[in-house]
Design brief:
heterodimer, A: about 425 residues, alpha/beta, D-Maltodextrin-Binding Protein, domain 2, nine-stranded mixed beta sheet, two-stranded antiparallel sheet, B: about 325 residues, mainly alpha, 2 domains, flat
Chain lengths: ~425, ~325
């Protein structure tokens, strides 16, 4: 395996050396790999790259993208190849920790601590802190919440603004079902969309302290009460059979498209769903913004978690070891408030740059942004936080709970076992 | 004893003549040997680099806990294997592989043989039917998987429309943990029966037609012709197809990934898809290598065992 990699690496480098020496005379090339398939976002990234190049003669910025799932599967090998990109998309969390431990990333504490980090929302910087060192530059923020179809809610006589608690949500689901409407769509085949229910409920039952103490291995860890309790609450929802037919095989793109087609009333997901919905709806438009409502994840009676806390993605750029210093220069330029303001204005995503965030004008995005302002904690997805091994088991178990193939106690135990195994090294 | 030594005796008597008689080796023979020595290293080198070394590495990795970064350092002995045999999903994968083998042996091969017998004679339309039955084999597995994903789709698929015709709501076949594996088996049978049919037709065409004529003159029934003439003379082809079928069943992967990705809830996982999802995508390379080692051992044991016993005269 190692030999094969070495060989293909040599081949690739030989070919690219030939190609680059022939094609252009740039002195330094900064290569970036991200996952966004949206044409608007790609155009936006490329525009920034071209402007950076024109201000820095001799520097070339190459931007490429890979689809989400392929990216995640390729990144380990890629990071060890001689042809690795300089800048990579990241989710932070346990995967980042393993990369740092492997010594393949560049420590950005120096430049970041020199005022650069002050541009960003502290939570976004925090997400790239591994043992006191900073390894990432915040890029975008996406918040988890329920997006709902206002027309379908009206038809069933449900008022979105009154859904505050988990019981309210369950009552709403029943009302929708009584009106013959599928309450929820979910991309269960991808598993992580289902894990959002269980993890967000845990943020309500036990909150960040419960997660932290489980990660430190205290007490019963992931088999402790807050995790079992949240599993039970999730099961209350599952028992109502609220999801679309065939939800266990659907992926997130399909589910987002179905929401856009008006096939179901709600979807629990990140706010990037607005882009995904558009690409996957039957008419390539989906629901217009004024037909969509947003509600933050409901609270849980007697829960110890802070009711205002949110879950979300805090994506960032990580830099591979031995990259040229122009890499950091480019990222500094990229994250300038004036540049990120454009992303906010165009409604492409929410940049965690405090100055630029003010320019978010799309009301739906603004609403999700408000919820972040009231949160004490912005928790990244448990599958990312727990790392590749235990995180995947978390997703498996969420999916098994949703399929009724395991009990909350057994599911919580399985996470605890996986966490112990992952912590072996 | 004296009876059993006879075949061995003949081979050992034959071998000195062909191998170890240096006096009788002609100039041309030694030239051939020189050429062989000249051509061997490149092939041997490639084989070593791309087959032997990776296999050895997999065995090496399988006794480490390793996430794929750098060099494995954390020796865990047989822990990966212990975890593997305890793993309910791995057991389910094994069971699914057994299902694939059963479907192949009990449905696919008999179906292929039956069609081959029907289509072996050159009468009008047989070539057309042969072509139609062979077509699925030409498709790439991933393409076939994606096509069948659409067919099985519970909202828009052909399957759903068929149910609708009868006024019923069809199931989402690939989303039902108890049903999905059978849907996968059906596609697997559909995809490969044509290939085995062609092999059988080729085998049938080798059989001397005069035997059939003689049987007909003697008044043999169709079943007698099939069981007394066709089957015995097709034996080596049947044994070979069983060999291929079982090996490819153990290695079933592409179709699974394209159709279900091993889901829903791991219900369609096979050993190789298990290796991929639980070893590679979870950065648990040591564990994945242990799966690979077990898989390799099973394939080797089967291949040698089968060749030594069932195919020893072929």
């Amino acid at each position: 395996m190692r030999f094969a990699r070495l060989f293909s690496g040599l081949l690739v480098s030989a070919v690219t050396t030939l190609a680059t020496t022939g094609a252009c005379a740039a002195d330094v090339t900064v290569r970036l790999l991200h996952i966004d398939q949206s044409p608007a976002v790609n155009a936006f990234y490329n525009d920034i790259a071209r402007r950076f190049e024109s201000s820095r003669p001799g520097v070339k910025v190459e931007i490429q993208s890979l689809e989400n799932e392929s990216f995640k599967k390729k990144v380990t090998t890629l990071l060890q190849s001689p042809e690795k990109p300089n800048i990579l998309y990241s989710w932070g969390g346990g995967v980042l920790r393993e990369q740092v431990k492997a010594g393949v990333l560049q420590d950005l504490s120096g430049p970041m601590n020199a005022q650069w980090k002050d541009r960003f929302l502290p939570a976004a910087v925090q997400a790239y802190d591994v043992d006191g060192k900073l390894y990432g530059v915040p890029l975008r923020m996406s918040v988890v919440g329920f997006f709902y179809n206002k027309d379908l809610f009206a038809k069933a006589g449900v008022d979105g603004n009154t859904i505050k608690t988990w019981d309210d949500l369950l009552a709403g689901v029943k009302k929708l079902q009584a009106a013959g409407i599928t309450p929820l769509v979910v991309g269960g085949g991808d598993k992580w969309p289902l894990s959002l229910y269980w993890s967000h409920l845990t943020m309500r039952t036990g909150g960040k302290p419960a997660l932290d103490s489980a990660m430190r291995g205290e007490g019963k860890g992931f088999a402790s009460d807050p995790f079992v309790r949240s599993g039970e609450l999730f099961k209350q929802l599952v028992d109502l059979k609220p999801f679309q037919a065939g939800f266990l095989a659907a992926n997130n793109s399909q589910a987002s498209g179905q929401f856009g087609d008006g096939k179901a009333a709600m979807i629990l997901t990140l706010n990037v769903v607005l882009n995904i919905m558009k690409d996957n709806a039957a008419d390539k438009q989906g629901l217009p913004d004024d037909k969509i409502g947003w509600l933050p994840f409901p609270t849980v009676a007697g829960g110890k978690g802070n009711p205002g806390d949110v879950m979300g993605n805090l994506n960032g750029w990580i830099v591979t070891k031995d990259s040229p210093k122009e890499t950091v220069d480019f990222l500094r330029f990229f994250s300038e408030a004036d540049n990120q303001r454009l992303a906010a204005e165009r409604g492409l995503y929410i940049p965690p740059v405090t100055e630029s965030m003010k320019a978010v004008s799309r009301p739906l995005l603004q609403q999700t942004l408000q919820s972040v302002k009231h949160a004490q904690v912005v928790q990244v997805g448990f599958d990312q936080a727990l790392g590749p091994l235990a995180g995947a088991v978390f997703n498996d178990m969420a999916s098994n709970l949703a399929a009724g193939r395991t009990s909350p106690a057994d599911a919580a135990n399985a996470i605890q076992q996986a966490w112990r195994r992952a912590g072996l090294n | 004893m004296s009876d059993t030594t006879t075949p061995a005796g003949t081979t050992s008597a034959a071998s000195p003549r062909s191998w170890s008689a240096p006096r009788r080796r002609s100039a041309r023979d030694s030239g051939n040997t020189a050429v062989a020595w000249l051509f061997l290293p490149p092939a041997l080198l490639l084989f070593t680099i791309f087959v032997v070394v990776p296999m050895g590495e997999a065995v090496w990795y399988s006794v480490f806990k390793w996430n794929g970064y750098g060099v494995p350092t954390q020796f865990v002995g047989t822990l990966n294997f212990e975890l593997l045999f305890e793993d309910p999903v791995f057991r389910l994968s094994l069971f699914n592989n057994v299902l694939v083998i059963l479907a192949t042996l009990l449905i696919q091969l008999p179906l292929a043989l039956g069609l081959a017998v029907l289509l072996v004679d050159r009468v009008p339309l047989t070539t057309t039917f042969r072509l139609i039955f062979f077509l699925p084999y030409i498709l790439a597995e991933v393409a076939a998987g994606l096509i069948w994903r659409f067919v099985y789709d519970g909202d828009y698929g052909l399957f759903a429309k068929l149910w609708e015709m009868f006024g019923a709501v069809g199931p989402h076949v690939l989303a039902e943990p108890d049903m999905a594996i059978y849907a996968v088996l059906a596609v697997s049978v559909w995809k490969y029966f044509g290939f085995y049919m062609i092999l059988y037709i080729a085998g049938l065409q080798q059989i001397d037609r005069s035997l059939y004529e003689a049987a007909r003159i003697d008044g043999a029934s169709r079943w007698q012709v099939f069981s007394r003439i066709t089957m015995p003379l097709l034996g080596s082809t049947v044994r070979l197809t069983i060999f291929f079928a079982i090996l490819s069943s153990i290695q079933k992967f592409d179709l699974i990934m394209a159709l279900t990705g091993g889901g829903p809830n791991d219900s369609t996982q096979t050993m190789v898809s298990f290796l991929y999802s639980y070893g590679l995508t979870r950065m648990d390379i040591g564990f994945g290598s242990a799966v690979g080692v077990v898989l390799f051992a099973m394939c080797v044991a089967f291949a040698f065992g089968y060749k030594r016993t069932v195919m020893r005269h072929d």
